[in-house]
Predict the structure.
Amino acid sequence: MNGQTNFKLNGRIWIETPTGKVLGHGRVELLERIHAIGSLRQAALQMKMSYKQAWDLVQHINGHFDDALVVLSRGGTGGGKAIVTEKGLDMIAEFKKLQEKFTEFLKQEENSIKI
């Protein structure tokens, strides 16, 4: 191949414990949608996942923090509610800051690739 190939670094970042992933891009998106809509069911539908999968993810996330990131209340006549707590909003913000730093790191490293 003649000339220089333009390579780009790419990757994803997530937060995990020894037992596995706790927060990543998709889970943060789920939290953001829950916050915007106030409904776990509607957030799940928007993300094309089952309610059970979304519920399991929220339970998994909540189980890894001292304070819940999402508080769920059962539906009734008016339907259930889902509220992202202050701790949840803080974790969304922290994850986004971490993602920005990671993206910047990739850009800097991309410039140093000599292939």
Notes: The CA atoms of residues 70 and 84 lie 4 Å apart.
